[in-house]
């Protein structure tokens, strides 16, 4: 039987600065969802487990080191599809400690926002869902 994935696993992180602000990444020009704000992360490769994929993606994207013990599963969102019709499922983790200073190594820009500010940012549909789950009961 030929293996045709019907969904793509994506991981993302909500970094909490401890002062009520969360890191968001603005997608660079030329990429899908360019100009929209998202929780940083990326695709889980077939040989990876989600938490280790997140550690790799964040090192590549932001240049910081995450400790697997500091990651907490927070929410997931699904329903969006690729141009080929494959469903995207994003697994969101929170993290309150890391090593290094986040930088937008793959383009775009970074910003620290309160939940209320995040609610007003232009975001892809799945990031809107993730933010709603993450900040349910707060100002955002």
Please explain how this structure is put together.
- The protein has 140 residues and is an alpha+beta fold.
- The chain has a single domain (8-134), classed as Alpha-Beta Complex (Nucleoside Triphosphate Pyrophosphohydrolase).
- Helices cover 21% and strands 31% of the residues.
- The protein contains 3 helices and 7 strands, in the order ββββαβββαα.
- The protein has helices at 50-62, 115-120, 125-134, and strands at 7-15, 22-26, 37-38, 41-43, 72-81, 87-95, 109-113.
- A 4-stranded mixed β-sheet has the order 4-1-6-5, sandwiched between helices. A 3-stranded antiparallel β-sheet has the order 3-2-7.
- It is globular.
Strand elements, count: 7
State the separation between the terminal residues, measured CA to CA. Answer: 46 Å
Shape, per Cα inertia axes: globular
What's the helix count? 3
Query: Which percent range fits the helix content?
Result: 10-25%
């Amino acid at each position: 039987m030929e293996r045709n994935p019907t969904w793509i696993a994506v991981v993302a992180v909500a970094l909490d600065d401890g002062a009520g602000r969360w890191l968001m990444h603005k997608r660079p020009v030329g990429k899908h969802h360019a100009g929209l704000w998202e929780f940083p992360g990326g695709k889980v490769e077939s040989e990876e487990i989600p938490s280790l994929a997140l550690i790799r993606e964040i090192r590549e994207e932001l240049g910081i080191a995450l400790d697997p013990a500091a990651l907490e599963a927070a929410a997931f969102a699904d329903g969006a599809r690729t141009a080929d019709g494959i469903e995207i499922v994003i697994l969101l983790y929170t993290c309150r400690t890391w090593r290094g200073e986040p930088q937008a190594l793959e383009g775009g820009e970074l910003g620290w926002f309160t939940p209320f500010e995040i609610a007003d940012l232009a975001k892809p549909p799945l990031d809107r869902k993730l933010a709603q789950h993450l900040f349910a009961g707060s100002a955002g």
